[in-house]
Amino acid sequence: MAKLFINKDIVADADKMENWYLTGVDGVSFSDVQDFISWIPVDDPRIDIELHSCGGDVAEGYAIYDALRATGKEISATVVGRCASMATVILLAAPIERRKMYPHAKILIHSPYCPGIEGSVDIQALESLKSGLEAEREKMLSLYVERCGVDRSLLEEQMAKETWFGGEVAKQLGFVSEVIMPKSAKVSTKTIIMNKEKEMTVKKSLFERILAKAGYAKIEDVPAVALELTTAGGDTLTVEREEGDPQVGDPASPDGEHVMPDGKTIVVTDGVITEIREPEEGNNDTAALEARIAELEQQVSDLTANAKTEDDIKILDTVAKAGGIEKLTKAAASKYIPSGRAPQVKGKPEVKHESKIDKKLAAIREKNKQRFNK
After folding, report:
1. Which CATH number goes with the domain that contains 30?
2. Does residue 109 surpass a pLDDT of 80?
3. In-domain check, residue 319
């Protein structure tokens, strides 16, 4: 069995150097696969493809697809990481019963697009470009319908979404027939003699040699750079991205809907960001809640200022048990009048009470007065 690894972007030979400067990877071309096919012994009936590619050049992709099918060999294909765009066409070079993927692998399909337009373009040129894109889309859809065996409308709907999907959706859409589950290793004391299968790969690129010098066998071994974002609720959302804002298609964990401090909601499904929702406009709930919080804080402040101490509460309780402040006021008012201070009634002469001594002294004074007047 010959094994073909397609784990780079699909590019033409003439664009490899440019792709290297832009991405650090030269890419896989039709001529690479052509060389691979020429190295396969005539008596080797099988080609096993492992795919980990986000696609690339449309013409190169169709050329690789046709070349693989033209070998007449038994082709099998397995998605081991990401398989998107033109890489999905190469996946379909194998029949449905020999198309598989790993549990954490993802697939993405979309309509063909033009990377960019330079210079001035008139209406006629734009119409020509539009017609070309529509023809490419129709060609790709027809191939998907033929090789996947599902209704065209389902594939059109998925292409319009442009989102990654996992094994269960891939089986429903006919891209694979099986999700490969992990198997536990078995220990045996028996000696097993096996004929080692011959594996052939595309010749090593410059980038692969650099990886080897760095101590990595392949690009998947290089540790991924991840961003750790804090959600509005204080949880951590991990996104495999070196810099910039999270985007749909970025690997992330954990699964679920994560509301961020700016109000955006990031939806993670099967380890990939599938949707980023903007915050809803016109929502005044936050302002209303803030106003209510301020009102409650003022009430708490007022209550704290007027709060009574424990001693104050004891005094007021004692006054209440004694009958209230009015009763205590009446009880405190004394009705005692000292002797010689009889109350005077307004409008009446004061009545004096003389004792016997006072009367006798008055008589003596009167007698003396008469004697001295003689």
Report:
1. 3.90.226.10
2. yes
3. no
